[in-house]
Amino acid sequence: MNSDISLARFKQFPVLMWIFLFGSFITRGSYYMVWPFLAVILYEKFALSATEVGLVLTSAAVISVFTSFIGSSLSDKVGRHTLMYITGVLYIISFSLLAEVETVAGYVIVMTLCSIATALWRSFVL
């Protein structure tokens, strides 16, 4: 049996594809590892109710959905390569700010920035 999967075949991927795969791993991993803890922080540190925490997370997700529509057309106008770097920088900024915020409003804003970066990164798949 011959297999189409080989190390030589992986070496044929362009550099931009490797950047995309690495970025997807980092963004999805960080997004899904951090999000549950944000809910706990909002619930315990700021004494928000479960409904309020759900509203914060839902609003960030809804903004992410609408951003994905914009991101697809934006990648056509700006260019995928450029938007990929802009999105990476936005991710770095938003996760850095996430470590520094001290208020509920700050968490809401930074979580929204993280959702926007996630939506823009996922628009490359389309």
Describe the structure.
This protein has 126 residues and is an all-alpha fold. The chain has one domain. It contains five helices and no strands. The chain is elongated, with a radius of gyration of 17 Å. The two termini are 33 Å apart. The model has no long low-confidence stretch (mean pLDDT 84).
Count of structural domains = 1
Compute the CA-based radius of gyration: 17 Å
Number of strands: 0
| Number of distinct helices | 5
Short description:
This protein is mainly alpha-helical and 126 residues long. 81% of the residues lie in helices and 0% in strands.
Main attributes?
single chain; mainly alpha
Outline the fold blueprint.
Blueprint: H1 7-11, H2 15-44, H3 50-78, H4 80-98, H5 104-122
Helix pairs in contact: 2-4, 2-5, 3-4, 3-5, 4-5
